[in-house]
Amino acid sequence: MNPHHPEQPERPGPDELRRQFAEEARAERPDLALLCLLLGAVADPALDANGIDAAQIELDELAGRLPYGVRGGRAWASALAEFLGERCGFAGSSADYQRLESSLLHEVLRRRRGLPILLSVVWIEVARRAGAPVYGVALPGHFVVGFGDPSERVLADPFDGGRPMTGQDAELLVAGATGEPLEESMLVPARPLEIVLRILNNIRAWAAARPERTDVALWAVDLSLLLPSHPARLRYERAQLLVQSGQFLRGAAEMEEYADVVDGVEPEAAEAIRRRARAARALLN
């Protein structure tokens, strides 16, 4: 090998990226950052193994720049807000909801902009590496982070630069999103795979509003189906997307498979799905 021209690492193909994603999702302790970066590599052909490593290294370096010897949930929340929010400029705005990059961790690290859940992933991963007691909080409509013992309710909003959230702030946020009161179950720390599924749900919603991006919707559904726990209805959604993208036979076959699963519980729904499968096959004639 020519020492002046080191070989570029081979970029894993889509099948290999999905295999790695599925393997990590089934690990005893799934790595949230790695899952988000593998998702990013499926979305962005420019993200190779070097790029994934660089993003992990950046998270390590950010953690290394936090003050040493911080103690207690409130002190950690304050340290992260001052460093990531004020000094590094991680935050979000309404425009970020229109961009697919806002759901991709490597792009959020580059732009320092993103959706609430991706900014929260940055906070969680940086704080965790620094030894902070940190966790994600999947409030309806808006993801935030918590520090210390969950019973203390020390919450911060990374989308707003790390603004501290009172219990009343959280109640107003939930009421605005759902019209319902805040329930204790909403404050339970979110597990890594729940966070990844919610990110994929956001991407599917982004693609659903853009019918020309069936490609994005398809890979987002495919990755969701690789998670050990996912809504069964995603199989039907995938079949519909295949039909939309012109893969009529594959889509019809998957619809029929899903109808067989549903048949025992909802025979009428199963028959309606079979009718759609027949209609999809008819599009070939």
Characteristics:
single chain; 285 residues; alpha+beta; 5-stranded antiparallel sheet; 12 helices; 5 strands
Overview of this protein structure:
The chain is α+β, with helices and mostly antiparallel strands. It is 56% helix and 7% strand. It has a five-stranded antiparallel sheet with strand order 4-3-2-1-5, sandwiched between helices.
Give a nutshell description of this structure.
The protein has 285 residues and is of the alpha+beta class. The protein has twelve helices and five strands.
Largest sheet: 5 strands, antiparallel
- What Rg do the Cα atoms give? 21 Å
Number of helices: 12
Order of helices and strands: HHHHHHEEEEHEHHHHH
Topology overview:
Elements: H1 14-25, H2 32-43, H3 49-64, H4 73-87, H5 105-111, H6 116-129, E1 134-139, E2 142-147, E3 154-157, E4 163-165, H7 167-178, E5 189-190, H8 192-208, H9 214-226, H10 234-244, H11 248-263, H12 267-282
Antiparallel strand pairs: 1-2, 1-5, 2-3, 3-4
